[in-house]
Design a protein that fits this description.
By secondary structure, the chain is an all-alpha fold. 76% of the residues lie in helices and 0% in strands. The protein has helices spanning 2-22, 27-50, 55-64, 67-72, 78-93, 98-109, 120-130. The longest helix has 24 residues, at 27-50. This is HD domain-containing protein. It comes from Paenibacillus peoriae.
C-alpha cells in the first residue's frame, strides 16, 4: 500500500509538469523538455536507490528541477528560479511533509552549485543532471 501511494505522488507531480508543458506551443521544445525532465528523474531515482536515499523524492526533484526554464524560457539561475517556481505547487498539492518539501526544494535550488558538497539528495540531482 505504501508503494502505491508513493507511486501516486510521483505520477501526480509528473502530470502537473506535463500539463505545464502542454501549454507550450513549440512541439519540439515540448518533446525535448519532457525527455530531459523524465531522464533526470529516472537517473535520480536510480542514483537514490544505489545510494540508499528516498527514490521517490529524488525522482520528483528530478522532474521538477528545470520547471522554471521550460515554463518561461529563462535560463538564468535555474536552481533558485525553479525552486521558487515549484514551492507553491508542491505546497498546494498537500502530498509532502515539510521535511520532504525542504529536501525537494534544496535539491532543485543547489542543482548548479558544483563547487560545494551539499546533502545526499542535492548531490543526486547534480549527478543526474550531468548524466
Amino acid at each position: 500500500m505504501i508503494h502505491e501511494s508513493k507511486f501516486k505522488r510521483l505520477e501526480s507531480v509528473r502530470s502537473l509538469v506535463h500539463e505545464m508543458l502542454v501549454t507550450t506551443e513549440n512541439t519540439s521544445m515540448k518533446q525535448e523538455a519532457w525527455v530531459h525532465l523524465s531522464g533526470v528523474s529516472n537517473f535520480a531515482s536510480m542514483l537514490a536507490m544505489r545510494r540508499e536515499q528516498d527514490v521517490e523524492i529524488a525522482a520528483i526533484a528530478g522532474v521538477l528541477h528545470g520547471f522554471y526554464f521550460y515554463k518561461t524560457g529563462i535560463k538564468d539561475f535555474p536552481g533558485p528560479n525553479s525552486a521558487d517556481a515549484v514551492r507553491p505547487i508542491i505546497r498546494s498539492t498537500q502530498l509532502f511533509t515539510d521535511e520532504e518539501q525542504l529536501v525537494i526544494l534544496r535539491s532543485i535550488f543547489y542543482q548548479e552549485d558544483r563547487h560545494q558538497v551539499h546533502g545526499p539528495c542535492e548531490e543526486i540531482i547534480k549527478d543526474a543532471i550531468l548524466l
